[in-house]
Protein: Ferredoxin [4Fe-4S]
Amino acid sequence: MAVKITDICISCDACLDECPVEAIVDNDENPTGEDVYYVYADKCVECVGHNDAPACADACPTEGCIQWDEVGSGSIEKEDRGEPNTPVVED
Structure:
């Protein structure tokens, strides 16, 4: 599984510097053409081996913006991850 950034992204850059594997690109480099930041699922490691939780979600000021993606979409998956399409961090 990987994480994904939803369309409520405010393009604030908070997540970009937090990603230890540079799996996040800004809206100018989003391959889908959408005006939100994008997570390359094949690069995302859910911060396994880097942080206790995905650092991008901890840094994001927009509640619910960063969500879990489908199982099997990432290169490494956390054992205790949430369900797909649920926020990584819930306040």
The first strand starts at residue 3 and ends at 5. The chain has one domain: 1-81. The radius of gyration is 12 Å. The mean pLDDT is 86.
